[in-house]
Write a structure and sequence with these properties.
With 509 residues, the chain is an alpha/beta fold. Helices cover 47% and strands 11% of the residues. The chain has 18 helices and 13 strands. Strands 3-2-1-4-5-7-11 form a seven-stranded parallel β-sheet, with helices on both faces. Strands 6-13 form a two-stranded parallel sheet. Strand 1, helix 2 and strand 2 form a beta-alpha-beta unit. Helix 2 packs across helix 12 and helix 7 packs parallel to helix 10. It starts with 10 loop residues before the first helix and ends in a 6-residue tail after the last helix. 43% of the residues are buried.
């Protein structure tokens, strides 16, 4: 059941005099969230930002450089003028900490003050590497959640815990995918009803494998690769396509187990789909960290990408980063224990899909046609100032068609070229290396992003819609997260693609 905000309390009003802990603040969403809270509610009490750093001074420098110092904070900087620095120092508390440690590594008086002041916890920290080492992914995406829950239990004034997951925790499911939490032990292997996922057993397995590899001198150099392969093997054993979404699913299960509803805070899970650049405020087009579809755009801009595995008729479920943050703030305000009735003891976390595939689906064809329009209107300039002709990308709707093309277009010519290079005593080495790089680049992109490009699920967003309809009219405008308000062709052509070109150094000069 979705909580509803009291009629008199708008979202900015809820955050007034609140203590907020945000993990993952150096990430894309984390920065947008910190900026938005400070901008819409300057009377927030304090925002605690734990970041990996050896000491407080280093943590402060890291927050200044990687968060507050970003162009994203330009509007806030203009608003406060000369007072900006003192305002930030008063409101933002950088902490030398890490979610892989108990209490995030915070101790003593600082821990005591923080736990007393915190009303809201937003857990946005994660490793998003699809093929991360299994032990590392578990440390961050599972143990990090457990440590956050342990910290939450020490906060007597805590009202809501909001955990950022991903819509793709559902693996490669098809059809309408509901906003529901995972059951303990649930797997995605529908063909094996007896199979159970034991999160604690997976943690023990990873630790034991890592210990054995570290103890074996002959295996130490292969430890990284072996731990990556273990993560992928375990993910696929239980029906998930990669280590990232598998460990995020286990993180959700851990959250539900550790913070079972009752007298504690409300627990909310927000699952965004593919997050894209800011649509509206404070800086349209601003983006950081390569999004799934942006690797395709960058490859296209640099002419490294001649083909890709994608069905242009399928939906690419995308949502601008500012809309995700708006939904997060609305959900936190709605579910906070001060503004909603206490949940029953067996209440599971409420799940929100911050997605667009149901209400305003954008097919991959939108990205293709806006990309062509953009690069024809803004051609890259080569040596001598001449425009570089942008070649079109071939898209293949099936794995079989793509594989056949790659064999004929790249694999066979590459093998022949390598043979000729041997006969010519290495004279063709440069050409071999260039063709090899292009082949490896495309295959790596397809390996990483192919499953998303062929994803056939549609994310239900009934909870999100109820949340939106329960908002004040003014909040619906200021905290807009309705995907139906986005014109995808206009957004990609005028906002997102120019942002990708600007912030990823793919300019046209």
């Amino acid at each position: 059941m979705v909580g509803t905000m009291e009629e008199a309390t708008r979202i900015p009003g809820y955050f007034k005099n609140k203590g907020i802990l945000i993990t993952g603040s150096t990430g894309f969403l984390g920065k947008i969230l910190v900026e938005k809270i400070l901008r819409v509610q300057p009377d927030v009490k304090r925002i605690y930002l734990p970041v990996r750093a050896p000491d407080t001074e280093s943590a402060k420098k890291r927050v200044e450089t990687e968060v507050i110092g970003k162009e994203l904070f330009g509007l806030l900087r203009e608003t406060h003028g000369k007072r900006f620095q003192s305002f930030v120092e008063e409101k933002v508390v950088p902490l030398a900490g890490d979610i892989i440690h108990e209490n995030f590594g915070v101790e003593g008086a600082q821990l005591s003050q923080m736990t007393q002041e915190i009303n809201v916890i937003v857990n946005g920290a994660a490793t998003t590497n699809f093929y991360e080492r299994y032990d590392v992914a578990l440390d961050v995406n599972v143990m990090g959640v457990k440590h956050m829950c342990q910290l939450a239990r020490q906060c007597p004034n805590l009202e809501v815990v909001l955990h950022v997951s991903t819509a793709y925790v559902v693996g490669e499911r098809q059809g309408l995918i509901m906003e529901r939490p995972f059951k303990q032990g649930e797997t995605l292997r529908e063909d094996d009803a007896q199979l159970r996922l034991d999160v604690d057993a997976e943690l023990r397995l990873a630790r034991e494998c890592q210990r054995q590899l570290a103890a074996d001198d002959a295996e130490q150099k292969n430890e990284r690769k072996a731990m990556k392969e273990l993560g992928l093997a375990r993910a696929r054993e239980f029906g998930w396509p990669n280590t990232y979404v598998f460990t995020k699913a286990m993180g959700e299960m851990t959250l539900a187990r550790e913070l079972a509803a009752g007298d504690g805070p409300a627990v909310v899970i927000v699952r965004p789909s593919i997050i894209t650049s800011i649509q509206r405020d404070p800086l349209p087009g601003w983006i950081e960290g390569t999004r799934t579809i942006d690797a395709i755009l960058i490859g296209y801009a640099k002419q490294n990408l001649s083909c890709f595995l994608a069905d242009l008729d399928l939906t690419m479920d995308v949502i601008p980063g500012d809309m995700v943050v708006n939904a997060m703030m609305a959900a936190a305000a709605s579910h906070a224990s001060s503004s909603s009735s206490p949940p029953p003891p067996d209440q599971q976390p409420t799940v929100y899909h911050a997605t667009s595939s149901l209400r305003n689906p954008a097919p991959y064809a939108v990205l293709y046609r806006t990309g062509i329009r953009y690069f024809e209107a803004h051609p890259r300039v080569g040596p001598g100032g001449r425009p570089v002709r942008t070649r079109r990308v071939h898209f293949f709707a099936t794995v079989a068609a793509f594989t056949a093309y790659m064999v004929v277009r790249y694999r066979l010519p590459l093998e022949l070229l390598r043979l000729l290079n041997l006969l010519c005593c290495g004279l063709l080495s440069r050409l071999c290396a260039e063709l090899g790089r292009k082949y490896a680049f495309v295959m790596r992109l397809v390996d990483l992003y192919g499953p998303f490009a062929l994803f056939r699920g549609v994310f239900d967003d009934a909870n999100v819609e109820r949340l939106r309809m329960g908002m004040d009219d003014g909040d619906r405008v200021e905290f807009n997260f309705d995907p139906k308000t986005v014109d995808w062709d206009d957004y990609f052509y005028k906002v997102h693609i120019p942002g990708v070109m600007k912030y990823y150094g793919c300019g046209h000069s």
